[in-house]
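User: Hey, my collaborator sent me this sequence without any context and asked if I could get a structure. I don't really work with proteins. Can you help?
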Amino acid sequence: MFMAKQPSFNTPLSSICPSELWLGINVGDAFWLYFYVMGIVDPVPRNALTRTSSGWSGYEVMMFLFGFPWSCVNLFASIGIIAGALEAGKGRGQAMQGIMLFFIIVVLVPAGIFISILPFFGGWIVTPIVQSGAWNHRCDGYPMYAILDGKAYNGPSYVKDVAYFYLNGKNNVQFTYEISNPGDDDQWYFRLQKWNVDQLSIPVDAYPTLQSVGYNFADNTVTGNCTVPSSPSVFTNNTSTRPCVTGTFDQGNQFFFNITSSVPLNNTADADTTQSFSSALAATDSPWFVNNAPPALVLREQEPSSGSNNVLRTAVARPHDCTELKVCIAGVQGREGSQVMAEVLAPLGVVLMRQSDHAVECTTPSD
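Assistant: No problem. I've predicted the 3D structure and written it out in structure-token form, which is a compact way to encode the shape of the chain:
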């Protein structure tokens, strides 16, 4: 009786799946994994996958549904290739058998493990590695950065949603701002909470005199107050506060700010006249946030005085801690102290509000 030949580990791969097709599917799966990792680590500019949470969820589910059976295919293919290599080494000289065994142990076995694990587990393995690199280096070249720290869903009431500000090249926090709502649902404030280092150690162009930003969500207006020394010296403890920011904003899909500000440096006396600037700022892409993901945007001047100017950009969430988001701060080109001016601090407060929402969302246990 005729019996169909059953495949074994010694069966050539081409008799089960053409090697070209097998290689092509693995290359395609590598691209699938690449876009998955980039969708988490660097989602701007948005694409069809990252523009909505439903689109991203579908992509994620399909990747894992396909990944498991393809990991099994790669496992059996790897075993077959290794078995074939062992068979090919039989009958050879002792030296050749040693070379073949070395090649199998050093090359084929690690490669087999790699291609067997990656289709299904690659998202969990690769993403934190790439995320860690982005966290450590994406803000290289920026003068400052901030870490937005949202409170977890079960955080105590005394814990605030805060932004920690750093000078690039220094590992210690310079100062901290917090977002607060005094009881009026429409009125929020982004205010200086504390100095984390001696104020005299902060460079003048990184010292924030804009120490309170207010947002009225009833009419989408923004205001701000600046605190400056009463005499032109950074060593005096006598200060005065005055209005220095007005404008409008939209925190919807088209994130933008129109701001008029006269924010002085810390070596400016209260009586001095501070130059006024008007700026139109907008995110380069939309939406700047989707459900189940931290805010992601590049904020740019609409009409920069010279060339393209990214004022700030979100970097990436901290690996294994979805409550923290790193933001790279560039400021406005050609303006001293612009890293702590209204063009940075006013939008950053709204980004912190959204990161606060995400921190609650991502730490709430699934039912």
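In plain terms: The radius of gyration is 28 Å. You can pass these tokens on to your collaborator as they are.
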